Amino acid sequence: MSLDDAQIVNVNPQLQSPDTLQNSSSHGGGFQSKSWRASSVQEVGFVDFGSKSVPQGSQGGGADSEGLSLSMSHREIDNEDARLVYVNDALKTNERFEFAGNSIRTAKYSVLSFLPRNLFEQFHRVAYIYFLLIAILNQLPQLAVFGRGASILPLSIVLLVTAVKDAYEDWRRHRSDRIENNRMSSILVNDRFQQKKWKDIQVGEIIRLSANDTIPCDIVLLSTSDPTGVAYIQTINLDGESNLKTRYAKQETLSRIPEKDRMNGLIKCEKPNRNIYGFHATMEFDGKHLSLGPSNIVLRGCVLKNTNSAVGVAVYAGSETKAMLNSSGAPSKRSRLETRMNQEIILLSIFLVALCTVVSVCAGVWLGRHRDDLDILPFYRKLDYSEPEAENYNYSGLGMEILFTFLMSVIVFQIMIPISLYISMELVRVGQAYFMIRDDKMYDKTSNSRFQCRALNINEDLGQIKYVFSDKTGTLTENKMEFKYASILGVDYSGEGTDFDGEQRGYCIQVNGQVWRPKMMVKVDKELLQLSQTGNNMKASKQIYDFFLALAACNTIVPIVVDTSDPAEKLVDYQGESPDEQALVYAAAAYGFMLMERTSGHIVIDIQGERQRFNVLGMHEFDSDRKRMSVILGCPDDTVKVIVKGADSSMFKIIDKSFNLDVLRATESHLHSYSSIGLRTLVVGMRELGIPEFEQWQSSYETASTAVMGRVALLRKVAINLENNLNVVGASAIEDRLQMGVPEAIESLRKAGIKVWVLTGDKQETAISIGYSSRLLTSNMSQVVINSNSKESCRKSLEDALITSRKFVVSGDPHAGGFGALIIDGTSLVYILDSELEEQLFQLANHCAVVLCCRVAPLQKAGIVALIKNRADDMTLAIGDGANDVSMIQMADVGIGISGQEGRQAVMASDFAMGQFRFLVPLLLVHGHWNYQRMAYMILYNFYRNAVFVLVLFWYVLFTGFTLTTAVTEWSSVLYSVLYTSVPTIIVAILDKDVSRRSLLTYPQLYGTGQRQESYNAKLFWLTIADTLWQSIVVFFVPLFVYWKSDIDGSSLGDLWTLAVVFLVNVHLAMDVIRWSWISHASIWGSIVATCICVIIIDIIPVLPGYWYVRSLA
């Protein structure tokens, strides 16, 4: 009985990649009726479990991103716990709960809220509150040391600069929002499609989309122009992936025409959440209860491709769409240097309090001694004789006068806390980021991408990294897979490959007078190619036929026909989320099994020139628990076959017990040899399904797919029951080549004292092979391998390894290459992480130069980073390219995303992004070193220059009866750190280089200065403060003694002190500059000149205090 005439529809081949999804669930399709010739296939999606509340050692799924402990699929969606969407009835949908409109707002401020909200956010910095209190105190008559305007000026300048920057950024967001909200879409209104602005779309409305349209909100597909209900979408705006994905409309709604047929239905779906890979809902339509999954929903921001039109109903709009719920960005991080700087500012505050206490106590003592002379002393009078009638000063008694003196001292010495430091740090980081972005040594020509600085506040952390945690696939390797070898029926086909089949340019087929070729050429084994062309009559040829049929059919690849410059020639581009699947399908095409067409219900494969159609009767996609995928094919010879491919660890468990043991052993041997040279391996199995077994699967699948509780677990159980008693067809080996410069980069990092750990999902042999080829592992390294299946076994392995490592440390053999490599698998980590064994693993890892973790889940990657981050005082960096690396990237102190083949999820979650792993060397060893050294020096210099000025004011107080009379004009005091000395500091912190790029790359050991915190530590801080003491004494007393017997007044001397301090701190800066440029010269010497000009201008303005005091110095 043939299956060709059966009406096959969507079996939900949801395109999920093993490399990019951490917890996908099995799902597939089955017939609605139990007859052999069915009229439709029931599809269902899966619900993706998030990851946040699962123990990091767990292999299973966890709670979703909202922190729920149970997925929506594990409980019934009732009316109180669900969103009810009435199809084509927006009024009824929104009458009970007014759902969010489709207008979006990414801007933070409005015209009215900008000022209060921006000020509120800025005053989260404690230093700003400090200076605000100082300004308020100065407004009180008893404490008015400076003019009221002058006291507010420094804080006002800093707040204004930040506010202008924030306002400009928010204006750009407002402009983007306005453009987005005013885009147009076609909405069904009164049985006619009309153009409507995106911001006016409501939940429940029906939307029609055309090819290349962007989806305005999250919609459930109702129909498409494809007769099978398939729609191709591109999610590059959502997750950065350019490969096409498939979504499907339900068969029951597919034939309806919205303008003619009244479409009524009720969708009961989960409440809005951030899980872009999961969707769980049911739909009541024409009396039928339909199940909806991720393959039925298209998210806002996706683009409709290769599909003429599609119709859907809005279920989430505006701020409730999954794209908007995920737009919060990566968590904020603060640099370690800034954290340490805040501690020093607390010490400066204590020092400031000490100075003020000394002044106030001395003032109290002085007032007590001169209690009887206060009426007649010319410099401290209780009576004011400037008026005709003498008036009493508000003398409040000794205790209050001491308090007032203390507060006035705080006002006078306020710049001890450098308010300009924060804005200076932001400007310096912007300048550093500019030079990192423009560095041609970090420009990737292949992807035409430059370095990206996504987090400006941790630039200096790049110079203090001690641990690098790296993904393997796509990070150390190119993630451009190339089919290399095959093992079929125990025969190893790993001979020398040839690029072309004879004189032809690879395999090609004729379609309507045109030549179709695979877009990518694959080297082929000549012997295997000849056998694949002999048909499937002989046993060996039959196995080869089944092997390449499995490669061409068991996947979710979509063939796209691409035009070329030659009208008679077309290229077939295989689109898919998994580079592994793409490589396998290209390999099948090279050997004459060319996938030509895929719909929701069938595939067409050209096999050695003969076009054959296979009905896709069901599919269970890859998930991280089963570690395999399967497809049920209705073949042209009326047989039904189940094809399974997956990791060897999962496949060999489901092989038929009666299968030829010699073939099995040979296949295992070939797999081991492939893995040992760094190749990625997959095992392919197959068996025929009888009619009774198929009908049983169909019934079980239908029951599981329509379940409202525990659907995921039921579907997984159906898949496991199907995938058994297989015959091994063969195994494939794919090469994922190392990126250029990876071995040299790792060697340089290790010389710099950085420990490199590799965390991969690949099998152990593959990871070890890559470790050797990348120079992560060396031949003289001892290896500790932990592969345990129980907690006790893990405990014993760790204890034995610790004893060995301690003996090695005691012996200190210089020729042993360090107690080298710890190799541990994900199963062992399940028992170690989140248990008392973590401490032992940490101690062991500390003794090892290299740690290699194999078969690890994404959550385990984050757990390993947390293991070091929470126990060591060293800086950590994580680098990866896929969605499975996001948790690791966000856990580390510094996260770097590789913009590679697995989309941009890692980039979007990272602090920095770049194109190649080898760029880590210039980033850390060059820019990281410079950034750390410059920022450390700038912070210490800011403390120095402000402390010198404050101490000069302090010494003057000792000569004025502790009255807080200041010789320096109030405007010079407030402009000192904001204008007089700020520009040179910023310029030098951006441009100066203590060591050249060539030296830093030649001698990676120089990077250790940041790891050891040699440029900024407590010792340097106190030396800086000590330096300010003697320099302030010199700069104060030399002018004082020079003019001691002259009639120059204090204010004129104050101008001299101002100029002397500015000259001193700038010369001090100039002495520390290592690499001079014309900008450095202009800023330093120009600052001195500018200060002289400013002092003269201030003194010649009659309304300001100190009028013409500078003339006295002449």
TrEMBL record:
Name the enzyme's class. Answer: translocase
- State which Enzyme Commission number(s) the record gives: 7.6.2.1
SUPFAM superfamilies registered for this protein in UniProt = Calcium ATPase, transduction domain A, Calcium ATPase, transmembrane domain M, HAD-like, Metal cation-transporting ATPase, ATP-binding domain N
- What positions constitute the catalytic site? 471 (4-aspartylphosphate intermediate)
State the GO CC annotations: plasma membrane
Sequence positions that bind Mg(2+): 471, 473, 881, 885
Subcellular location(s): the record lists:
Membrane
Write down the InterPro entries for this protein, in alphabetical order.
Answer: ATPase_P-typ_cyto_dom_N, ATPase_P-typ_P_site, ATPase_P-typ_TM_dom_sf, ATPase_P-typ_transduc_dom_A_sf, HAD-like_sf, HAD_sf, P-type_ATPase_IV, P-type_ATPase_N
Membrane-related topology note: Multi-pass membrane protein
Pfam family membership, one: PhoLip_ATPase_N
Q: Which reaction does it catalyse?
A: ATP + H2O + phospholipidSide 1 = ADP + phosphate + phospholipidSide 2
Q: Where is this region: Disordered?
A: 1-33
Q: Which residues form the P-type ATPase C-terminal domain?
A: 907-1103
Q: Which Gene3D superfamilies match?
A: Calcium-transporting ATPase, cytoplasmic domain N, Calcium-transporting ATPase, cytoplasmic transduction domain A, HAD superfamily/HAD-like
Segments passing through the bilayer:
150-168, 345-367, 402-423, 947-968, 974-991, 1020-1044, 1056-1076, 1088-1110
Boundaries of each P-type ATPase N-terminal domain copy? 85-151
Residues engaged in binding ATP:
471-473, 581, 622, 645, 680, 760-762, 855, 861, 884-885
The record's listing under PROSITE patterns reads:
ATPASE_E1_E2 (PS00154)
Q: Which GO terms describe its molecular function?
A: ATP binding; ATP hydrolysis activity; ATPase-coupled intramembrane lipid transporter activity; magnesium ion binding
Cofactor(s) the record lists = Mg(2+)
Q: Where is the composition biased (Polar residues)?
A: 9-33
Q: Name one GO biological process term.
A: phospholipid translocation
List the PANTHER family: PHOSPHOLIPID-TRANSPORTING ATPASE 1, PROBABLE PHOSPHOLIPID-TRANSPORTING ATPASE
Q: Which family does it belong to?
A: Belongs to the cation transport ATPase (P-type) (TC 3.A.3) family. Type IV subfamily.
This one is known as: Phospholipid-transporting ATPase
Q: Which organism is it from?
A: Cynara cardunculus var. scolymus (Globe artichoke)
